[in-house]
Design goal:
This protein folds into three domains: 180 residues, Growth Hormone, Chain: A (Up-down Bundle); 47 residues; 213 residues, Up-down Bundle (Growth Hormone, Chain: A). The protein has 17 helices and no strands. The chain is 78% helix and 0% strand. It is mainly alpha-helical and 490 residues long. Helix 14 runs antiparallel to helix 15. InterPro entries: MFS (IPR011701), MFS_dom (IPR020846), MFS_trans_sf (IPR036259). Keywords: Antibiotic resistance, Cell membrane, Membrane, Transmembrane, Transmembrane helix, Transport. One of its GO terms (molecular function) is transmembrane transporter activity.
C-alpha cells in the first residue's frame, strides 16, 4: 500500500528548520560543561595557574550559569525569546573567543564567567522557543526527542571533543570551537519564531532575583569546594546551610510576590515536579559516572584521553537512540510516568554493571563498559526527552522562559552535587582501603577501583530511589495529560 504524500506548507517547513538552530545552541551550552575539563591541564601549564586557582576555569562558569539561570529566564520574557536567544548566542561566542585568546589566568576566568552569564539567556531561550514553536503533540515528541538527544549526548561528546582538540590542535580550540558553531546557529535565526516581549510583568521581583541568585551560587560553590575541603569543612557547611536557607526564603517570598520571579504554579504541578526531581537525580548519578569512566579508562586501563573519550561516545549514541528512537516514538502512546521510571531504572542497571568491576577484570570493554554505556545512555536520553516535554507543556509565553530556566538550574545543581558527592565517596573509600592494605602498585589500583565501585553503588541507589519516587508521585494519565494544566495538580 502506497500512502499519499502529505503536502508540507512553508510554515511547517520553517518550523522544522527551527529545530537544528536551537539544538546547536543547546549543544554549545552542554559541551562547555565538560569540554574544558579535558583541556584544563594544558591551560594550567600555558597560563601558569596554580593548582588552587585552576578550579576557577570550571567554577566561574558554573557559578554564573547555575546562579543566575532563574534571573536569565525572566529576562528572556522581558526581552522576547528570539531577541534573548540572539543576545546570548553572540555573547557566548564573543566570550569563547576571549577565553581562547586569553594570555593570563584572570582573563580566562573572566571569559568563563561571561560564558556562563550568556548561557543564562541562551539555554532558557532555546528551550522556550522550541516549546512555543512545536505545540502539536506528535510534533513535540519528535522535536523534543531530537533536542534531548543533543543534551544527552553533549556532555559525553564534550569529553571526546576536548580530548581530540587538546591532543591534535590546542587547548584554546576547546573555546574557539564555539565561534563557528555560533555562526551556524546565527545563520539560522531567521527561521526562529518572532515573539514579542512579555507585557504582563511591569515590576521586577528584586527580592526573588537576589535570593535565588545568592542561594544557587552558595550551593554551587559549596559543591565545588566540598571535594578539596571536605563536607565537614566550616566553609562548606556554611555555604550549604546558607544556600538552603536562602532558597527556602526565596520560596516563601515567591508565594507572596505580586510578580514572582518563579511562579509557584511552575513547580507545584505533579508532572512538572516529577520531571524536575527525576532530572536532578539523573544528573547527580550521571556526572559522577562520566568522571569515573574517564578516570578508570585512563588510570587503570591506560587509555589515552582520546580513546577514553571514544568510550563515552557510546553513551552519546545511546542518548540519541533513547531520546529519538524510544521517547520520541512512545511519546503519545505511553504515560510519562512509565517512561521516567524505565529511564531511571535503565541508567541504574548501567551503574550496576560497573559495580562488578575489579582491578583485575578482563574483557572490560565488552563485558562492562559497553553495556553500561548503552544502558545509561538510553536512560539519560529517554528521560531528558520526556522531562523536557513535561516541563514546558502547557506553558504560555509568560512562563515558558522561567520554566526552561528552572529546568536548566536543576541540571546544573544535580551535576555539581553529583560530581562533588560521588568523587568524595570514591576518594574517602580509596583512602580507607589503602590504609588497610598498604600503598603498593596493586593495592593502589585495587583501592581506586573499589572507591569507584562504592560510589557507583551510591549512584545506583540514587537512581532506584528516584524511580520509586517517580512511580509513586507522578500522574498516571496518558502522555502529556499531566503537564498541560498550568496550575497545581490536586
Amino acid at each position: 500500500m502506497v500512502l499519499p504524500e502529505v503536502p508540507v506548507s512553508p510554515a511547517d517547513s520553517k518550523r522544522w528548520r527551527t529545530l537544528p538552530v536551537v539544538s546547536l545552541a543547546q549543544l554549545m551550552v552542554v559541551l562547555d560543561a565538560t569540554i574544558v575539563n579535558i583541556a584544563l591541564p594544558s591551560a594550567q601549564h600555558d597560563l601558569g595557574m596554580s593548582d588552587t586557582d585552576r578550579q576557577w576555569v570550571i567554577t566561574a562558569y558554573a557559578l554564573a550559569f547555575g546562579g543566575l539561570l532563574l534571573v536569565g529566564g525572566r529576562v528572556c520574557g522581558a526581552l522576547g525569546r528570539r531577541r534573548a536567544f540572539l543576545t546570548g548566542l553572540v555573547g557566548f561566542a564573543a566570550a569563547s573567543a576571549l577565553g581562547g585568546a586569553a594570555g593570563d589566568a584572570g582573563t580566562l576566568f573572566a571569559a568563563r564567567a561571561l560564558q556562563g552569564l550568556c548561557a543564562t539567556l541562551l539555554a532558557p531561550a532555546a528551550l522556550s522557543l522550541l516549546a512555543l514553536t512545536f505545540t502539536d503533540a506528535r510534533e513535540r515528541g519528535r522535536a523534543f526527542g531530537v533536542f534531548a538527544g543533543v543534551g544527552a549526548g553533549g556532555a559525553a561528546l564534550g569529553v571526546v571533543a576536548g580530548g581530540l582538540l587538546t591532543q591534535y590542535a590546542d587547548w584554546r580550540w576547546c573555546l574557539y570551537i564555539n565561534v563557528p558553531m555560533a555562526a551556524l546557529a546565527l545563520a539560522g535565526t531567521p527561521f526562529l519564531l518572532r515573539d514579542r516581549p512579555d507585557r504582563g510583568l511591569p515590576r521586577v521581583d528584586v527580592p526573588g532575583a537576589l535570593l535565588s541568585a545568592a542561594g544557587l551560587v552558595a550551593l554551587v560553590y559549596a559543591f565545588a569546594q566540598a571535594e578539596p575541603r571536605g563536607w565537614t569543612d566550616p566553609v562548606v557547611l556554611t555555604l550549604l546551610t546558607g544556600g538552603v536557607l536562602l532558597l527556602a526564603l526565596f520560596a516563601a517570598v515567591e508565594t507572596r510576590a505580586p510578580h514572582p520571579l518563579l511562579p509557584p504554579r511552575v513547580l507545584l504541578h505533579r508532572a512538572r515536579g516529577t520531571a524536575f526531581s527525576s532530572v536532578f537525580l539523573m544528573f547527580v548519578a550521571m556526572f559522577g559516572f562520566f568522571l569515573f569512566v574517564s578516570y578508570y579508562t585512563q588510570t587503570i586501563l591506560g587509555y589515552s584521553a582520546v580513546r577514553a573519550g571514544m568510550v563515552l561516545l557510546v553513551n552519546a549514541v545511546g542518548g540519541i537512540v533513547g531520546s529519538v528512537g524510544v521517547a520520541g516514538r512512545l511519546h503519545r502512546r505511553t504515560a510519562p510516568r512509565v517512561l521516567i521510571v524505565v529511564s531511571l531504572l535503565s541508567a541504574a542497571a548501567g551503574m550496576l554493571v560497573l559495580t562488578q568491576l575489579t582491578a583485575t577484570s578482563s574483557h572490560v570493554f565488552l563485558v562492562y563498559l559497553l553495556p553500561a554505556q548503552i544502558l545509561t545512555g538510553l536512560g539519560l536520553g529517554c528521560l531528558l526527552a520526556t522531562a523536557t516535554d513535561l516541563v514546558t507543556a502547557g506553558m504560555g509565553p509568560a512562563d515558558a522562559g522561567i520554566a526552561s530556566a528552572a529546568y536548566n538550574a536543576v541540571q546544573q545543581l544535580g551535576a555539581a552535587l553529583g560530581t562533588a558527592l560521588l568523587n568524595s565517596v570514591a576518594t574517602s573509600v580509596t583512602a580507607g582501603y589503602l590504609d588497610r592494605h598498604g600503598r603498593g602498585r596493586d593495592a593502589v589500583d585495587a583501592g581506586t577501583v573499589h572507591g569507584y565501585t562504592v560510589a557507583l553503588w551510591v549512584a545506583f541507589a540514587v537512581l532506584v530511589c528516584g524511580a520509586l519516587t517517580a512511580g509513586a508521585l507522578s500522574p498516571s494519565g496518558p502522555a502529556g495529560s499531566g503537564a498541560h494544566a498550568t496550575g497545581p495538580a490536586s
